[in-house]
Amino acid sequence: MSGTKREIILGVGGGIAAYKSCDLLRRLQDLNFSITVVPTPSSLNFVGTATWEALSGKSVNTQVWEEVEKVNHVSLADSAEAIIIAPTTADLLARLVQGRADDLLTNVVSATSKPKFLVPAMHPQMWLNPTTQANVEILKSRGFAVMQPATGRLTGNDSGVGRFPETSEIIAAFLDHIGSTQDLLGKKILISAGGTREPIDPVRYIGNRSSGKQGEALAIEARNRGAEVTLVLANSNIPDIAGIHTVRVESAEQMQIALQANIHDCDVLIMSAAVSDARPTTVAKEKIKKNDLQKIELVSNLDILKKLSEDAKDSQVIVGFAAETSNLEEMGRAKLQAKKLDLIYVNDVSHGAVFASDESAGYLMSAEGESIYIEQTSKAKVARYILDKVVSRLGYANG
User: Fold this and answer.
1) What is the radius of gyration, based on Cα positions, of the chain?
2) Catalytic positions, written as ranges
3) Beta-strand pair 298-300/205-206
4) What are the φ/ψ torsions at residue 372 (nearest 5 degrees)?
5) For residues 373 and 355, is the Cβ–Cβ distance under 8 A?
């Protein structure tokens, strides 16, 4: 599999609830996250380095002065997509408010702008202390998410608010904070993206302007929602995406082979790639001289989406894309019916719009006749709209 798992930093504060974070680590791993544990030095009194290294499979440091050559406080901040600190003690809350950077964890927090999710756990009187409550509000105003502690028995005979929440509750709140609603968990999504190229000779080709950005956005959104994603990517400079199996191709024939190899066990196919409609009948083995390049004879490529849709199982959801310059709804409806699709997104590409852009506008249409116009917005939001509809159709098809 190309790409790596999604990186999360698990910070651990110096409270007795630190032992409960062992289960939190395991459950995050179950969701295909790769976890780097960064404990505070005092937390090692409760759970030692060996335990964290055994569970995470990674080396564990607590101080900036360990493995200095790796510049851990910067490299960890750059590589992780989010930080969750569980438990977060009253002392740690206060140090974060002050912007202290006196151990590795607080250095990493200071060095990142990624989402930060805190799980306070402490004695009820410490949690209700006005200073602690003020610190919580300050951190919230700075963009930290702070989970409300649970109520129940703590150490000894003490009981009240301040208890470490259940692991399932922490994970649900954390995923919501980072935008990872797991409504596609257990589903396999196959996505094509980019633009195919059909060779004319060793240096020339027939191609198009597709960048693959919309397919990238779909793949990331599907991954974030818990799906197992395979991305068949044609001629794009987009790097491999963490947690996504990327298959790189060039021509329409190569794309067809890659999709055919993966279509049999996927739940959803989203065909966002721009596939060349035709290819040269012959490909010159050597560069054609300019004076000899008078005409190119073409032959039609197979309509990959139509073929895959015709062979699809009833339970599979098939989503197509169309790039049009006029009569978007009319053209979209015709392609939706001709290719027997469940959904189609019709881009308005007039005047060179959409291609290589981070934004898009168009119609999202369904086989039942629904047509929704999506105003100019980010391709990430377009991906969200499309996958919302996919989730609904999966529920209907498998209900």
Assistant:
1) 26
2) 208
3) unpaired
4) -115, 125
5) no
Q: Is there a cis peptide before residue 87, judged by omega within 30 degrees of 0?
A: yes
Domain boundaries 188-397, corresponding CATH code: 3.40.50.10300
Q: Is 72 helix (H, G, I), strand (E, B) or coil?
A: helix
As a whole number of angstroms, the longest Cα–Cα distance in the chain is 92
The answer for residues whose C-beta is within 8 angstroms of residue 247's C-beta and 6 or more apart is: 2, 230, 231, 232, 233, 258, 262
Reported as a single tens digit per residue, the pLDDT across 85-132 is 999 999 999 999 999 999 999 999 999 988 999 999 999 999 999 999
Quote helix, strand, coil % in the chain, to nearest 5: 40, 25, 35
For residue 125, give both structure tokens.
């009187």
In the numeric block, the tokens 């047509």 are attached to: 371
DSSP string covering 307-351, please? HHHHH--TT-EEEEEEEESS-HHHHHHHHHHHTT-SEEEEEE-GG
Record the tokens describing residue 105, joined without a space.
Answer: 């964890």
Using alpha carbons, select from 261, 284, 273 the residue that is nearest to residue 207: 273
Contact of 22 with 47, CB cutoff 8 Å: yes
Cα–Cα distance for residue pair 342/313, rounded to 1 Å: 12
Q: What CATH number does domain 6-177 carry, 3.40.50.1950, 2.30.30.40, 3.30.390.50, 3.30.930.10? A: 3.40.50.1950
Contact 178, 145 (CB under 8 A): no
Tokens 């290719």, located at residue: 339
| Number of CB atoms found within 10 A of residue 15's CB | 30
Residue 186: CB atoms within 10 A of its CB come to 9
Contact status, residue 189 vs residue 394, Cβ threshold 8 Å:
no
The model's pTM is 0.70
pLDDT digits (tens, 9 = 90+) for 212-266: 999 999 999 999 888 999 999 999 999 988 789 999 999 999 999 999 999 999 9
